[in-house]
Records
---
Amino acid sequence: VGIIGGVTGVFLGLSIDQYINRFYYEWAEEDRSIEIGTAWLLSWGSSFLIGIISIPIIFLITPYLFPKVNFFPYIFLGLLSQIFNSLDVVAFATLRIKRLPKMYSIYQLSKSGIVICFNILFVLILDYRLEGYFIANLVSSIIITGIALKIMLIFATPSLKKDSIRVMFRFSLPLVGNNFVAGVSSILDTFLLQYYASVEVLGIYSVGMKFASIFSQIHKALKLSYGPFAFEQLKKDNGLSVISRVTVFYVFPLFFAATGIILFIDDLVYWINQSSYFPIIEFVPYLIITALIQTLVIYYGAGIVMSKRTELLLIPTTIQALLIIGLSFV
């Protein structure tokens, strides 16, 4: 279900939220509400359209790709949740580019709280078990969509500005192809392990990735402020110079965090005192270093997005994917 959701999620919304991030500071103040409204309608419309089309397609191919998993109810409920989950990215992008950290945090915490509460209700109280987990995620995503709708009505004017649509798709559509290749690369490890490794090995790897996600969360926190800062600087005469100097201060904490996790991972695992976690100690440093290298691309490869040449992103991403596939089979 996670693999299918990861692939379909790339297409939902057509990466139009990135259009808001890149062009927001180029719009006149009086036009921003209309521009965001156009992006909002197209993003939501594409999510529903692509999501509805994907359901019968995935139903037909599931027996061949995942013969051990039934489409109903798990994959079906997972797909519905994925469709609704994709709708909040425009709201998050809007709050982020407007630099509203309090509202962003409240929205994010509310989202997490709603998901947790419904999981407790359906999984623990009502005892629906695994099916309850998927039902809880679907109900949560629908409620969160209602909150996202309220946010968008505050900051956006629903519209379809024809001149903007052409620019929007020219910028965003290449990102879909890039994200698809990147998404395939990110799930390839799990896909290969489920066929060529034991359940125990797959479990150890999954636990290792949980520890590596500590680093990923630090990166996500820094990235939230980097984008708005960088895109705002572009309109200034010395903007590129400022961006290049400040980027170092974003990258340094990542090196510091990676080093800390690598040095103290054994102490942390032993402190948790779960013998099943002990084998991951030797693997976590490799996962952390890989995550660090991937995050550096976000900062030092941002020039492609800044120049609006998003079609070029597919080149390094494809090279990375081919290397991962080739080395994985080797």
---
Amino acid sequence: NLEGYFYLGYIKFMMNDYASSEDYYKRGLQIDPEDERILNNLAETQRLAGKHLDAVETLRALVNITPEPLVWFRIGNLYVDVSYTYEAIDAFENALELDEDFERAHYRLGLILFDNGYFREAIPHLEYVAQRHPEDDLINRRLTTAYLRTNQLDQAIANYRAQIQRDPQNVTAYLNLAGSYRTLERNSEALSTLNDLRAIQPNNPTVYVRLSDVKLAMNNLNGAEQDANRAISLDDTLYEPYMLLSQIFQVRGYNKYEEFIALEEQARNAYGREADRLVSERDSARNEANQLFTTARQHLDRAENKTGEPSVLRDIAARKQLLNQLIEETRRTFFD
């Protein structure tokens, strides 16, 4: 009977036997093609079995019975998984037609539109999320870039300034204003804006993340490191401070690596005690560079453990690949 097939499908699902689970659920649907419990579970079974498009069809049958924004959201995510970009956009838009305040749909739609170059269309969705989560660095950076790509950044800066004048406690306006300055590489103005915000929000970890980023851009490595560590002390769940610490140590490693290369060249043309001194300094610079690059990679490992955002994970993977090359390069010299 229907209940029997439902529970058999569920038991097989819990045993990770997705093929048998799917078979039992489909037998149940032969009895009642509109059983929402079975359709819902069948879609999840198909997703975990890697049958994403089958799961889409199952969820489409479900949403035809009961139009729910969450079902359209799940459809959108499935399309994203198989790189059906335009279908995913349609699905997220359908979710928002049913619930205009569906925050996760705004988030995913804003990012997918941005990543595919639809900057103007992405802006309202990124704005929606940024207004509710001013600490979300990923969203705010993309919003600022979208303004820049659509020639709206100057107007956005004017709007943020006006917001701060009306409400000097508006944290979001400060962060957005600083982010806009940062995008335009007006780093001194970004730093001033963030210092103003720190005066009214001294324990806000996002402020220190942004301060660290600006100081890194201004080559104030010690200040950037101090602010990143301050952010961690306030909220150890954030990935951004560890990304910044990785960049800081990577820059320091580059500096030592350049010193190593210069000493390598000098040692080639030196003799006697001078050669011995240069070789010793060369090896010391090489070892320091290696340690700095290794520390940078360790911070990336920590960042990776604190985020599940695909675009951030891709960035981390690319950075790790480069750091691994640098670590390997500084393990040896021309004379090894």
